[in-house]
Amino acid sequence: MLLEQLVNGITLGSIYAIVALGFTLVFGVLGIINMAHGEIFMVGAYVGVMTTGVLGWPLWLGFIAAILVTAFLGYLLESLTLRPLRGKKGVSHLAPLISTIGVSIFLENMTHHLFGAGNKPFRTPFAQLSIEIGSVTIYVVQIIIFVISILLMMGLSIWLSKTKAGKALRATAENLETASILGVDTKRTIIMTVVIASAMGGIAGVLVGMAFNSVSPQMGLAIGLKGLAIIILGGMGNVKGAMVGGLILGLAETFLVAYGDSGYRDAIAFIMIIIILLLKPQGIFGSKAAQEGR
Amino acid sequence: MLGELLNPYQLQIASFVLINIILAISVYVTLSSGQLSLGSAGFMGIGAYTSALVTIHFEFPIIVGVLVGAVVAGILGILIGIPALRLSGVYLAIATLGLGEVIRVIFVNWESLTNGAVGISNIPQIGREIVFTTRDLGFNATSLGLQNNQFASLSVFLILFVLNIFIIWFIVRQKNSRVGRAFSAIQLDEKAAESMGINVTYYKVLSFAQGAVLAGLAGALFAHVMGYISPSDFAYHRAVEILIFTVFGGSEVIVGSVFGAAFLTLMPEVLRFISEYRYIIYGVLLVILMAVRPQGIIDANILKRLKRSKGGDVHGS
Amino acid sequence: MVLKINHISKNFGGISALTDVSFSINEGEIYGLIGPNGAGKTTMFNLITNIFSPSSGEIIFKEDNITGIKPHKITEKGICRTYQNIRLFSQMSALENVMVGGHCRSESGVMRSVFRTRYQRSEEKTLKENAEELLEIVGLIKYKDVLAENLAYGQQRRLEIARALASDPSLLLLDEPAAGMNENETDSLFDLIKQVQARGITVLIIEHDMPLVMKLCDRITVLNFGEKLAEGTPLEIQNNEAVIEAYLGKEEEDDIA
Ligand SMILES: Nc1ncnc2c1ncn2[C@@H]1O[C@H](COP(=O)(O)OP(=O)(O)O)[C@@H](O)[C@H]1O
Ligand SMILES: [Mg+2]
Fold this sequence. Notes:
The complex is a heterotrimer of chains A (294), B (317) and C (257). Chain A has 294 residues and is mainly α. Chain A has helices at 2-30, 37-54, 59-82, 94-115, 140-162, 164-174, 176-181, 186-212, 219-234, 239-259, 265-279; strands at 120-121, 130-133, 136-139, 214-215. In chain A, strand 2 and strand 3 form a beta hairpin. In chain A, helix 2 (37-54) packs parallel to helix 4. Chain B is mainly alpha-helical.
């Protein structure tokens, strides 16, 4: 029982981690909270459902489709809503917040309009496949989710630390102006960041569809809020923090549902961040930058 | 003849506009000291539930219930406002958004008190109370040529209207004073404000609590206008909607909040004929607005120009 | 003695910005704080106004130990400053900026403000008149309704001084007030600071413009890499070997001679 919950928690947590990574990448580079990230995730989940469930495509093709669609959405998001606000005089930090909220409202209602309000079942051919280890039942789906998440996180870490593009991204995150003086094509880096973050959201969407066997237009909101909570927990813009924060939340939620009061499940994320913000506002892994009184 | 002009449905929409204006102002006041709070929906819920519960269980008169609701929201505002001082910008926004979610989840789960997700119905309604009270005093709406429901909606509208005028008057007066200057100084440069001798802690908590009181007041009024409330009335969507009223209309000036709340409350009514698409349009509209006018529709410049052109008419000849 | 800096040190993470610096300022003096960039001058201001707390040491203002007191309380006690990188309230008019400076010398709260009591009206009137007088002194009365961000650079610097004066300080801290000013502007700045002194206000000034410093100051402390290198009258400083070597010798010697 305990072990099973542990597996459930880790599965959920690794999905949360991927969603949070999307938030954290965009925040790290652009200093913007992308309020549409949850809805991009939701679109990814729908593409997964439609291609595998309705069109009968194989799962891997469903993933590719979801990645392509959400990456393209990310591109549109960057060029139509974020770029026009950049470097413009009189733009407060409110503007990108509202603008991406606009996108999230658009995507949620568009999906609602196209596919209706209800839950759509998500049938994967192996949804019921499971293996028994002693008394513990583990579903194949859970293993797939876990493996994909780990690969994705490792890939991202390696890409960020080893490749030229990844280094450019980190330099831009550090300081946009300095990076551009040093010859980094910051415009391209920003596009790339948003596109990659969105594609990760799309992958997470398909994974959630698999884990819970259903999708709905509102699923983006719930996960988006949790993603926000996680990046505060782990420190804004902090990649490692997003991963650990995601796992912590996944485990906390699973154990609360199993051993406590499931009604408060959706509040844990925020109770945790409210506590964290009061104790250590820069997050678990964040560091404090002092630059006052100049 | 008065009776033919007054459509209770339209009066109710107008009342919602007025409640939403109070909500928008609650965000405006908090923003005026540089704090972006997404907690309005939560404070609104606190005001609504408090007032609904005390009027139902303790049979408080509505007006007392509304005041209690606003005060309780204000006290919570102070309690939250103090630790929130350590946060700024998006951190504060997310933390207050989280606070709203926690409040909503408590409403859903504390069933013995709040009746859970179903919500509370049978909340005493302002309009009806007025009809009954005036009837007891021997006044009959028909003597004005009005039906009872028209009279009820009309009195609700008038009460809210007077309250709106009072709130706007209060906030404008406050803005053009030592307190208002302290708020703007903090908004523009908190450290410099502190160095100029402004007690930043005090003024930030003050403006946060004022926002909470206004949201709580609006929530209590909402409860007694609608007659029923449920946790979903105070969820994420409401928090975002309220923020958008203010930012869409223009967060620099109070007129912006009034305009934003009025326009965005009426727009879905006007767009009823394409109701299927209205939220899709709403989303696109926000994106376009931020790209074209990130400061919102109305800003200080527009107001100045309006004033000048009016002044020009007067002095022109 | 107005201000006494007692063995002050300040570390930021690993680097020490100030190491065991002491000096004291007499009433009515104009006191100079000079040294190369990064010497720790601005940090000293930030410690005096308690934007940061010192790592060790204490700061005594008129017999009071003010180390660790909240910044706004320090302003109330009578110390006010300007910033090296101008920090005006950019979206407020010049007049409003100066009126904000008078905040801690007035007291009307929310109720008085909203109901415009007689007390509030007279207080507001006094605040405004004081602010206008100060704008007159710094030569900005013509621009009183102009937004601070639309003023020229030199005007912004003077506005910052007026704003600080509005808090009725007995000690005024000026962080590179002449930076970016042309010769005319520097001359009128000199007059302005002398005028401030004539009002009985003690001045502590950080400045790179050596002719101005030497002309203006009664005494000077030189900082170098966070340590106090020398203290004395302008004449003594100009003839101090260590100072000439560390600082003046490199760039400004000709100017001073
Ligand atoms: N907030 C801070 N955080 C970290 N280091 C700082 C901070 N403020 C100043 N320093 C460091 O302290 C040293 C002195 O800076 P400063 O006082 O600004 O010099 P000055 O004003 O004499 O040019 C510099 O090395 C600077 O980098
Ligand atoms: Mg300096």
